[in-house]
Predict the structure.
Amino acid sequence: MTASIADLANSYKNIRLHSVSICEPLEIEDYVVQPIGDVSPPKWHLGHTTWFFETFILIPHSPGYVVFDKQYNFVFNSYYETVGNRVIRTDRGNLSRPSVADVYRYREYVDNYLLDFLASHAVSTEVKTLLELGLNHEQQHQELLLTDIKYILGHNPLFPAYSNQVAEEAALGNADWLSFSEGVYEIGFEGEGFCFDNELNRHKVYLNDFEISNSLVSNAAYLEFMQDGGYEDFRHWHAEGWDWVNQNKAKAPLYWHLIENEWMQYSWNGLQKLRPEQALCHINYYEASAFASWKGMRLPTEAEWEVASGSFQWGSRWEWTGSAYLPYPGFKKVAGAVGEYNGKFMVSQHVLRGASVATPEGHSRNTYRNFFHPKLQWQFTGIRLAK
Amino acid sequence: MTASIADLANSYKNIRLHSVSICEPLEIEDYVVQPIGDVSPPKWHLGHTTWFFETFILIPHSPGYVVFDKQYNFVFNSYYETVGNRVIRTDRGNLSRPSVADVYRYREYVDNYLLDFLASHAVSTEVKTLLELGLNHEQQHQELLLTDIKYILGHNPLFPAYSNQVAEEAALGNADWLSFSEGVYEIGFEGEGFCFDNELNRHKVYLNDFEISNSLVSNAAYLEFMQDGGYEDFRHWHAEGWDWVNQNKAKAPLYWHLIENEWMQYSWNGLQKLRPEQALCHINYYEASAFASWKGMRLPTEAEWEVASGSFQWGSRWEWTGSAYLPYPGFKKVAGAVGEYNGKFMVSQHVLRGASVATPEGHSRNTYRNFFHPKLQWQFTGIRLAK
Amino acid sequence: MTASIADLANSYKNIRLHSVSICEPLEIEDYVVQPIGDVSPPKWHLGHTTWFFETFILIPHSPGYVVFDKQYNFVFNSYYETVGNRVIRTDRGNLSRPSVADVYRYREYVDNYLLDFLASHAVSTEVKTLLELGLNHEQQHQELLLTDIKYILGHNPLFPAYSNQVAEEAALGNADWLSFSEGVYEIGFEGEGFCFDNELNRHKVYLNDFEISNSLVSNAAYLEFMQDGGYEDFRHWHAEGWDWVNQNKAKAPLYWHLIENEWMQYSWNGLQKLRPEQALCHINYYEASAFASWKGMRLPTEAEWEVASGSFQWGSRWEWTGSAYLPYPGFKKVAGAVGEYNGKFMVSQHVLRGASVATPEGHSRNTYRNFFHPKLQWQFTGIRLAK
Amino acid sequence: MTASIADLANSYKNIRLHSVSICEPLEIEDYVVQPIGDVSPPKWHLGHTTWFFETFILIPHSPGYVVFDKQYNFVFNSYYETVGNRVIRTDRGNLSRPSVADVYRYREYVDNYLLDFLASHAVSTEVKTLLELGLNHEQQHQELLLTDIKYILGHNPLFPAYSNQVAEEAALGNADWLSFSEGVYEIGFEGEGFCFDNELNRHKVYLNDFEISNSLVSNAAYLEFMQDGGYEDFRHWHAEGWDWVNQNKAKAPLYWHLIENEWMQYSWNGLQKLRPEQALCHINYYEASAFASWKGMRLPTEAEWEVASGSFQWGSRWEWTGSAYLPYPGFKKVAGAVGEYNGKFMVSQHVLRGASVATPEGHSRNTYRNFFHPKLQWQFTGIRLAK
């Protein structure tokens, strides 16, 4: 932790501004809705990230700080049991108040206080650490804002575009196999900068010989799987995945629509023809595994991915790995509320590696462990094969 | 049907304006949310009532009419199977678009067209009938707007007030019993004005001797029932009602909150102390029946209510009757889509009579048959006893 | 209540024996299962009817009576809140114990005690009344035994027959219309024998002119409705019924199977070709109403049915009426647990009149009010049209 | 695969007989019920294991074999999509037929055929492999029979004992820590005998220094956790586990009952006082993890467990590990239906190692990978701590 206060204050301003700029194209109505439980209303993200700084920095560390509104702890707490009761997750879209204007006032209020606080106090290492965590937390919510906005607009029968200033496409080079030899490798974070607790400890793993593709799977390749009856053949699927296919009548990735016999794809730019040569997006772990099985291959483990990651390009899609999300050897929860950040989710989730077109700049590294439930498709997820 | 075109056009303008004025105190966010399936977002009500005029009058009867937006039929159809697919009811609150501004533009577009149409064409009796139905339909949605807005704001943890320009209170006079002798009576609509199909035919019924209260049940009387253990004693409840009590841990009417040992009630004016002398509100049929049973009395039938209605004041609360919602002798569905208006709901509902503080002026009569499922509390409902 | 003790004891023996004889063709396994919540395991019916006599007669009225097993109150109470906790209804099929042999021992124990009690005590009018109620209660469960056994065997993939000693068929004569003139009529029970509380008070009703068929609807007539697209045309259905059709993909009455393009029907005698000329069976209220609507007619009210019942044959099918199940004028619940018998179900149910091939001899009269939820098909239900 | 035909035939007879002997204490009714979806009726286990031999050996490999009953494939297929439609899992307890006697006849029929087949044919290696798999499969169902019988009787309000000839208790020695040094180890099956596909390939893993207890956790130790508020303190639980606690109001292991302030435990021998010194049983993964967290320790990984397993006693409880159930390096599914045996469950499950008091003799080894969903408690599960 060597960042200067001035640097931290600067980061704070830039990162906080970026959240606002993501929401700039929205109508007020778009800030409010929650079409499924996993998607939060944009105004909730804006409030919740602000609440994080207020709750973990200003209230405990800035004497005399007056909370903006006592009810906001109830409204904007996400899952911190330590910090008290909260609106249940699926009710976030039922709240018309606080209004969007109120939430922006809340952001401004906390920002002013926090920047004043940084300017006028001797800031402890503990606070610096919390600040860095809060900024990384806000960056995670920037990615969620972009995925949730896509879901909200992409599930509206009018299919409004989000923006033409951003693009989801990811061109793919020629696919090739990279080979790695068996032996002891090290994975996990090391060095000076920020990392999440789940990236520690750096530790040794034993890997067998493996090959990994230098390229992601394309829409065209996935179409081939579909046309070969991939969604109708149970042999490629986990039992749980096959149940998911049948219950949801799944036939294609999320956001794909067969309209007058042509595959269309909804993106931030609206509904457009599917571009076969681009990287596949929005498949869940069941689909990624089924595709790999159909190819007679498999997904890489997260250790394989990390070891190989220097040899290929990554960052446009979160890549499903075959690894369940579990603690590394020597993993320790931090004491207090921020200890709830990662550890309590270490069951029934799969690890994704890399980053995506929705990940903010400066928020990715090859030791980053993203994780989601195997059934979820709404993140910008893709497939890299191994064998 | 004797109203002149000029009168109808005038009614049209006034009634359409009244819907807009109901929404005047709202924030844009308040137009969007749907906390439970029975509550629709205010912008949906505004769009749906407009869609009714567009679909049943302008499209079939105004040659050359260009629909405002082809997708709106999908978005704003409520339950008319005849008219095609529609957004499922519980998804209304998941739609951020059309925006509130779009909906107001839609209203203006349809209003201009329709008033032009009325001014420039020989208007058939069929269209007059549809127009009158559309206006009564809009008035029903004005009441729903007021009940739904109350639910949206009253279930927000911040308890924002809707307006101080309107009041829900209903003072009660001295309670007394009115006696009626057994014999043949007539009920159902007769005369020249508008009525819904479910108020026909006027027909004879045989009533036994009965007594009916000239006054509604007060908050104080209901508190007595609660304090006597009314919600804990299965003997007063229907089996289905007792299940409802237990599943919902019901302990009081909707909008009542016990805060620091004091009963508070949320109303359009915000959260305030309960006023015991006022008329009880927001109980469902199970609660109304249980209260009556606890008193050793019963609810009146709809025929008793109608026969007696000239002898007491009514109009502040919809009054649960002991009658199921069934067709009158000789009831006939109209042909076509508007035939779906009432008849298809004639199972598993109970009749409410009277009107409420949310009912628009000019939209009540003593033959009006309102109906809801026995479990619903969110309307402005009350109790009148009989024996 | 004029039956002598000897007559009552005799009735007791015969009725109790009849329940046992109904179960005679069963395998032990058939006594145990509960494929849906509405169907109870046969051994539960045998235990529950025994519990009724033990609980309401022997325990309170026979000094020194020792209960057979203290746990049985928990196991065999159906819905009497007054009498304490009970196994939840949908768990009845999860209990392998008490075994079938235990239940028969329980029956024998209670029968011996009760017959001794009748023989050796001065039996009060109260006890006589309870005994008569208990016998009528057992007869109701004899009908349920036959409907539930049919469901258990008829939903087994092996389609085992129940018995060839009984038949469900009901031949139909020539259909004709019977006309009745408007005026005041009386309905409800009067006279000396037994009736349920819900058949009282006998009271006057006003009926309009009506016509009612002297015959039930045949399988052939219903097939015509199906072939005319009856299950695909929402216009004939209540909104709630249309939801039921779609959620259940309903296409035909219960127990009808289209096998190699031929309609088969499961009956007590096994799976056989549908016989078109026989009376239709196993439709719910939604289906009965939809059929009547398709014919341009309606179902009779329960008052019309009762007034006309002397002019036609009835008794092979429970006939859905258009009347909701509500209290008659002057209806009073009995005090104590048996007061829970009927009144608490008077919401959200429809009345059926007549009797069925499953009704035991001596248990039908034209004032009998049977009632079920509109969605239920598993009783032996049929349709009689009115207009 | 070196077993002789005579040995195999002998094993077949003994193993098949053992399944029957497990059911010997049951009443016929106990064979039928299915109180929760995870528990299958005993007669289903007896039929299903028979169906396995019929379907995978007799039908494809014994020319002229006549199936016992064509419908049984529908009734007794568990989850093999390859082999056609089947009764949905939660409906197994709704089937009274085939009767228990039918199922025993089915067993006898298949046993006779299969033993004849073995005696009179040159048996291929493929068939030998299938036979060995079928016998191991039957042994797995022997364990399930014992866990399911316990559930069926232990959830009956009469709490009948299963048998006094078997005992669940497991005495514990003095607890001590065993230390292992970091380095490369090998795990997975090697050698000549039978193993499941999921135990392959044997492969190298890198382990860090670790300590593992030589003893299981006792009832007394778990009681301490409970009395220290373990079920009320979210900090020890996974988020998913905490939801489970709250939704199920979990307060103790399965089969523990607090009766008149004393902890009782239901076992095969009936309801008895809890014995604190015995090994804990019937906790799920959430509970095991929460207990470990409360102790400031963790569960071992499956690799640690296997490496250390030579140094401690195991076999009385299935021991939850911290490892998700995933394929080993080089894992391959077998072609055809038996390829569905293990691989398709490799998501959302946790690995358990060891064996239990319900595991049949000769069916355990230290490379065996058992797996269940983290929420399940009904197996004979226990806890061994690591750090």
